[in-house]
Design goal:
By secondary structure, this protein is mainly alpha-helical. It is built from 19 helices and four strands.
């Protein structure tokens, strides 16, 4: 297959989802109401064709011992002096599996949602946000420039937050969407800060070639270990928000307020996988800094232990699956920090597929549970007895309280980290209400 065909396939992977989103956006903007089947077909066909293109290109790239990278430069959006916002897509052994996974899951969710959201008033809005989310993730996956990756990073975060608040007529989904969005905004600052410092130290923030020991394209590393460690910590901070790592993962169980299809793809599979993916893509930058590696492993290990305990006391299946996702993502972060690149990539893909299926099946879990009990003529055995035998009874009581309080991280964030800011905002809102009432009273007196 020629390089021109490779580039056409790569453009199709990113362009088809974008075309589907723009078409749905035009329908929504002009108020052209279309049949549900038309709306869903636009998304499913676009992402289905993108899946085929990604799989064909992935087979071509991964075949043989020689690592092949397919670049598609599209110039620069703007430039000033030595800096330029480059539009560069890259297909390699890392980006294409993740791009194929994203396109496949978005397409399957589109098919599943045809019946799940049938006659839902926000049917078009759901598919519009689903397409926007897919566009953002595909941009992150295929980007060969960190500036372009940041644009996709923000689009995916915005779409996922809006999907949490899909049922906006209720208070809880909106509150939980705001919490997720604020977590994103607080952590996303790490990515542009890392881009600025990388460009300051190396002069370039685009991929520079195939890594000899990685098998995929990488970025130029800073000359000093201190700069590499700083960039690595900033990238880790950005990844922690999307991947729901300790102590910022409290938003993920609450994100299950959204529709089950969006929960399956965003918070069980693809969205939480963007953090490890970002670290894998930029590993060449921070791999030489021991402090950055230790930080990645520590965050992942603490998250895995914490959410394993917290997930065991959950009483609803979607929250339990959310904590299970956080556990697996924490383990993937450990693998990334230890340099187990291909294991982390395989783990990421396998977890995304299995977790999506589990969340889609979650509404039928009670029915399945009762069916199994009838088949076995008794209650199903309780899991976790091996932990009870290993842990002393006094420690079990403390761990149970720890799990019920979710490690006290929510209380710490509420009372100390952002408590003062929240109180200030509420005070300002109270003063604004008083000011509005005073103006209303004064206007009424003048009219009388």
């Amino acid at each position: 297959m020629s390089l021109a065909i490779h580039r056409c396939l790569l453009i199709a992977i990113a362009g088809l989802p974008l075309g589907a989103f723009l078409l749905l956006a035009a329908l929504a903007w002009w108020g052209r109401v279309r049949a549900e089947r038309t709306v869903s077909t636009i998304v499913t066909v676009a992402f289905g064709l993108a899946t085929v293109a990604a799989l064909v290109l992935a087979v071509t790239v991964t075949r043989g011992d020689r690592a092949l990278t397919v670049p598609v430069p599209a110039g620069a959006w703007f430039g000033g002096g030595e800096y330029g916002f480059h539009l560069l897509l890259v297909g390699d052994r890392l980006s294409l599996p993740f791009a194929a996974l994203t396109a496949l899951l978005v397409g399957l969710i589109g098919v599943f949602s045809q019946r799940y959201l049938h006659r839902e008033p926000g049917y078009l809005r759901f598919y519009l946000l689903l397409a926007l989310f897919g566009v953002g993730v595909e941009t992150v996956a295929l980007s060969g420039a960190l500036e372009l990756a940041f644009a996709g990073w923000e689009l995916a975060g915005l779409a996922s937050a809006l999907l949490i608040a899909f049922f906006h007529e209720r208070k809880r989904p909106v509150e939980h969407a705001l919490r997720a969005f604020l977590t994103y905004r607080a952590c996303d600052v790490g990515l542009p800060a890392a881009v600025v410092w990388l460009h300051h130290t190396t002069g370039v923030s685009t991929v520079t070639g195939v890594l000899r020991d990685g098998g995929w394209a990488g970025f130029e590393a800073p000359a000093t270990t201190q700069d590499a460690a700083l960039i690595g910590i900033l990238l880790l901070w950005a990844a922690m928000g999307k991947a729901a790592q300790v102590p910022l993962g409290g938003w993920l169980p609450r994100a299950m307020e959204g529709p089950t299809p969006s929960s399956a793809i965003c918070y069980g599979a693809v969205s939480v996988s963007m953090g490890p993916y970002l670290l894998l893509r930029t590993e060449s930058v921070w791999a030489g800094a021991t402090a950055a590696r230790i930080a990645v492993v520590a965050v992942g290990a603490l998250t895995a232990v914490h959410v394993t305990l917290s997930g065991r006391v959950q009483t609803d299946i979607k929250s339990a699956l959310a904590y299970a996702s956080m556990t697996q993502i924490g383990m993937i972060m450990v693998e990334v920090g230890l340099g187990l690149r291909y294991l982390a990539l395989a783990h990421l893909v396998a977890h995304a597929v299995s977790r999506s299926a589990q969340i889609l099946r979650s509404p039928s879990l009670i029915h399945d549970h009762h069916h199994l009990e009838r088949m076995t003529n008794g209650p199903l055995p309780r899991t976790g007895k091996h932990l009870e035998r290993l842990i002393p009874r006094a420690a079990q009581a403390w761990l149970y309280r720890y799990a019920l309080e979710r490690g006290y991280f929510d209380a710490w964030l509420r009372d100390y980290a952002v408590g003062g800011f929240v109180r200030l905002v509420r005070r300002a809102d109270s003063l604004d209400d008083r000011w509005a009432r005073w103006l209303s009273c004064g206007r009424g007196e003048r009219k009388s």
